[in-house]
């Protein structure tokens, strides 16, 4: 989809120029695609976590799961920040 958008913007350019520009933009598009997947995964994980925490479990299991969830969120946030920094480099 991103490729088509870039192609539409560059319609007046020669094929070679479009190819060169796409080559330069491709890494940025890859990062945005990774961020999109990360956002979708975050939503899926939040839903799953909510279902698990609302299920009947002993308090110890819920505390352990909450700790794991917290670590997972930190890792995803760190990964997201790294991807966002790559966009601006």
What does this structure look like?
With 89 residues, the protein is mainly alpha-helical. It has a domain at 23-49 and 59-89. It has helices at residues 2-9, 15-54, 59-88. Helix 2 (15-54) packs antiparallel against helix 3. The longest helix has 40 residues, at 15-54. It is elongated, with a radius of gyration of 20 Å. The two termini are 23 Å apart.
State the helicity in percent bands. Answer: over 70%
Q: Quick one: how many beta strands?
A: 0
Computed CA radius of gyration, to the nearest angstrom? 20 Å
Average pLDDT over all residues: 77
What is the N-to-C succession of helices and strands? HHH
* Regions with little confidence, pLDDT below 50 for 5+ residues: none
Overall outline: elongated
Strand content: under 5%
| Largest sheet properties | none
Total of helices:
3
* End-to-end gap: 23 Å
Sheet/helix structural class: mainly alpha
Signal peptide: 1-19
Keywords: Signal
SSE layout:
Blueprint: H1 2-9, H2 15-54, H3 59-88
Task: Please supply descriptive tags for the structure shown above.
89 residues; mainly alpha; 3 helices; signal
In a nutshell, what does this entry contain?
With 89 residues, this protein is mainly alpha-helical. The protein has helices at residues 2-9, 15-54, 59-88.
């Amino acid at each position: 989809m991103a490729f088509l958008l870039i192609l539409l913007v560059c319609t007046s350019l020669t094929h070679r120029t479009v190819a060169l520009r796409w080559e330069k933009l491709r890494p940025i598009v890859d990062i945005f695609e990774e961020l999109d997947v990360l956002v979708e995964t975050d939503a899926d994980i939040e839903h799953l976590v909510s279902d698990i925490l609302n299920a009947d479990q002993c308090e110890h299991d819920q505390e352990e799961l909450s700790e794991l969830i917290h670590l997972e969120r930190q890792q995803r946030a760190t990964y997201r920040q790294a991807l966002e920094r790559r966009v601006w480099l």
